[in-house]
Design a protein that fits this description.
With about 650 residues, the chain is an alpha+beta fold. The chain is built from 28 helices and 19 strands. It is globular and about 90 Å long.
């Protein structure tokens, strides 16, 4: 007999050459112990298991043609079970049982101890089918594309229509979407939207509740689909439009409540023209524990926030009030005339066509109490965020375990001859203990599972009568009925009691026939006691609080008629801001380039922007000149509220995949 590594090498070669059928025949002829070893080997075992599904299906078809219904039933059942080969424990049980070869005959084991109670297959008698013209087909409504301006976030400042990249994609404003992609499953749409080539930021998909904080499909989208296999493009667009409401909110700070008005300004004219905005982002900063700015401001209408002691009629149309210390970030902006103070500065500004007395907007005092609070938790900010990739992997492993439980329980419950073997296998594989390592502390089983597995009612496992359960008090001293919220029906309350009865730290259930079945793992809630959820503007390892203010201020400056915009750290240095805040302005300067990239003007960087450094003056930073070409691009394409970090960001994501 060949060595096992030689067997694996032979099978690997056959699979690599495309001879999967020959590889499977070789596998079937192996001794059981070698089948087990091959089944649990990465790659080879999975390839054989995938082939196995189709193979048993083909054998079943042949059996039916030969009027061998018993053999067909066995092979149909095994075709469904073949996918279990992907799970090592089932491979072990199946190999030890020896059902692989017996499946090609009459599936005697299935006739003795059927896995699932099945009724005899009945074929419906032939009947006359209506003509196609008599069948009323459902009307498919066309998808009406909208202009970009109608896809903006309702920031409550209608003059600043920051747009949705995700909805612009659906409406064909860039990256032409496949015209056949009109109806897809929710998962299918998510796959398209998260394709890096489509350049839709994951942060926007999170704020639109398409993705959750683990970057997995959001439960709300599944719920809205109401169990439908497919949803239309129009349905998805309407869903995202609803999620846009209140997602981003921008408020003007009242002039009397500007922060640090007594500070010295690097440009005196900035002090006299200063305006400040507060930016509210749904899902950002919810875990903040303190605030240093705007603590006495509250929302009073849909344009501004006012001091608590100012009575202003509430003209807002938002479902909730907000206060100043809920802000994700705030900023300041002022206008100044460009009057270069040195030949070096004048030369750099002249390269992008800046003229004397051009009026520029200058962005300053961008600060986030949210991020300040985060930094207080530790020196390494990235380790204060929940890693969505790591958490998603945990959830996937738990779901795989639960799928395994669904597939293995009928075997454990129905095969008496396998009781001892199954118990030994469970102990050896230690599946439940493995899933505990993922943080699982509770296991549960549904009433329907008992009935599916055993063919008997779950009520037989209850230790109380239906009457006792229905009127059970919530506490030892009486009070309201404990399962009142489950519903008025007795059946609803019995099921609620059953779930409570079996939701504990035990992973197994002892059935009355002596068999042991497994319970499903309850995924633990994420612990946010010392870590933060990633927010919609989270990228790489931290939140980019510069992105939203810079995008808003550029758009505002264009609409105001300014000649350009400037952002630099001179005012932050002048106010002796912490170094971590000073350093953030480099991100703000890079955001200017990101805006040019999305407008298709990235190759004109040297014509539109110039960066001044090392002068130690208020001119340090990046200047963007608003040319006619730039203003036309903004008018036609708008500025998105979210955007990936340009080509480099996409390359990074592709590399990770």
């Amino acid at each position: 007999m060949a060595e096992r590594k030689e067997i694996l090498s032979d099978l690997s070669s056959k699979i690599a050459d495309g001879n999967i059928r020959e590889a499977y025949r070789t596998f079937e002829d192996l001794p059981v112990v070698d089948q087990i070893a091959v089944s649990i080997s990465p790659g080879v075992g999975d390839a054989l298991a995938a082939y196995e599904v189709g193979e048993f299906g083909r054998r079943a078809k042949t059996n039916i043609q030969d009027k061998d219904r018993l053999g067909a039933a066995g092979n149909i059942a095994l075709a469904g079970l073949a996918g279990l080969s992907l799970i090592p424990l089932f491979r072990f049980l199946r190999g030890a049982k020896g059902v692989t070869k017996s499946a090609t005959k009459k599936a005697d084991a299935l006739t003795e101890t059927p896995l699932i109670k099945q009724e005899t297959l009945q074929l419906a008698p032939p009947r006359d089918l209506p003509q196609v013209k008599d069948v009323e087909l459902p009307e498919i409504l066309p998808f009406n594309t909208k202009p970009a301006k109608d896809l903006a976030y309702q920031t409550t400042q209608t003059a600043l229509p920051l747009q949705s990249k995700a909805r612009k994609f659906l409406h064909g404003h860039y990256k032409k979407i496949d015209p056949k992609a009109n109806e897809l499953s929710p998962e299918g749409w998510v796959k398209i939207l998260t394709n890096p080539n489509n350049e839709i930021p994951l942060g926007e998909l999170r704020i639109l509740n398409v993705l959750d904080e683990l970057n997995e499909i959001h439960p709300k989208l599944i719920k809205e689909a109401a169990g439908s296999d497919k949803i239309s493009k129009g349905f998805l667009d309407n869903y995202m439009a609803r999620q846009q409401r209140d997602a981003l909110q921008i408020r003007n700070s009242p002039p009397s409540n500007l922060e640090s008005r007594s500070a010295n300004f690097v440009r005196p004219e900035l002090k006299t023209s200063a305006q400040e905005k507060l930016y509210f982002v749904r899902g950002a900063g919810e875990q903040r524990t303190n605030s240093n700015h705007y603590r006495n401001l509250r929302l009073q209408n849909n344009n501004a926030i006012f001091p608590n002691n100012v009575a202003v009629q509430d003209a807002g149309n938002l479902p909730q009030r907000i206060s100043g210390d809920d802000a994700y970030v705030f900023d300041g902006v002022g206008q100044f005339k460009v009057l270069p103070t040195s030949d070096e500065i004048a030369e750099k500004l002249d390269k992008i066509g800046v003229k004397d007395d051009d009026v520029f907007d200058s962005i300053f005092r961008v600060q986030s109490d949210y991020m300040t609070n985060l930094r207080e938790l530790g020196p390494d900010v990235s380790k204060n965020f929940i890693n969505p990739k790591t958490q998603a992997e945990k959830i996937k492993k738990i779901l795989r375990y639960n799928k395994f439980v669904d597939e293995i329980n009928p075997i454990l419950a129905s095969s008496r001859s396998m009781d001892t073997l199954a118990s030994t296998a469970i102990t050896r594989m230690d599946a439940a203990n493995d899933v505990r390592k993922l943080g699982v502390k509770e296991f549960t089983i549904e009433p329907e599972d008992i009935e599916k597995i055993t063919g008997r009612s779950y009520k037989e496992s209850l230790d109380k009568t239906p009457e006792e359960i229905f009127s059970m008090p919530a506490g030892p001293l009486g009070g309201p009925q404990k399962y009142f919220d489950a519903g008025p029906k007795v059946e609803d309350r019995l099921k609620a009691y059953f779930k409570d009865l079996y939701k504990d730290d035990s992973a197994i259930v002892d059935l009355k026939n002596g068999a042991i079945i497994l319970k499903k793992a309850v995924a633990p809630k994420m612990d946010f006691s010392n870590k933060f959820k990633i927010d919609p503007y989270f990228e790489k390892s931290t939140s980019n609080e510069m992105k939203l203010p810079v995008r808003t201020r550029v758009l505002e400056a264009v609409l105001r008629g300014s000649d350009g915009i400037h952002i630099g750290n001179a005012q932050a240095i002048n106010e002796q801001a912490p170094q971590v805040i000073v350093e953030k302005y480099a991100r703000g300067e890079k955001e200017i380039q990101n805006i040019l990239n999305e407008l298709g003007l990235g190759n004109k960087k040297k014509e539109l922007t110039t960066r001044i450094t090392g002068t130690g003056s208020e001119y340090d930073g990046t200047f963007l000149k608003f040319t006619d070409e730039f203003k036309k691009a903004v008018a036609e394409k708008g500025i998105d509220a979210f955007k990936l970090g340009g080509p480099v960001e996409i390359d990074r994501m592709l590399a990770e995949l």
